[in-house]
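Side project, low priority. Logging it here so it doesn't get lost.
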Amino acid sequence: MKLLLDTHILLWIAADTLASAAQEYILDETNELFFSPASIWEIVIKRGLNRADFKVDPHQLHSGLLDNGYEQLSITSRHTLLTGTMPMIHKDPFDRILLAQSISEGITLLTADETIALYPAPVILVKK
C-alpha cells in the first residue's frame, strides 16, 4: 500500500515515539512510504515560532527520510487546485494540501488527526 505520512507521524518517527498503531504500517516492508514537502515546510514554520511540539531539525528529518527510503511526493498545481474544491472541514492549509495529494494520487494518508479523517478520502487514522 502507498502511504503518505502526515506531519505528526513524521515528528513521531523523528522523536522515536511512533504509536504502535502507526508502527505496523511504517514497519511493513510491503508499504511504500511517502512524505510531502508541505510537512517539511510546516515544521520549518512552526519550529521558527518556537512551538514545543516542532523541535526536530527539518534538515536532519528531510535527510533521514530520504536516507531511509521514504519518497518525497512533489506538490503540483493539480493538488493546490483541489484544495479549493474540498469542504472546509479542516482549515489548516498544510493538512488540506496533504489531503489533496492523497486524493489526487490515490495514496492513503496516515494520520493521527481525527478532523482529517472526516474527509471522504483515503485516510487511515491512528491513535498516539
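Brief comment: The CA atoms of residues 10 and 35 lie 8 Å apart.
Revisit when time allows.
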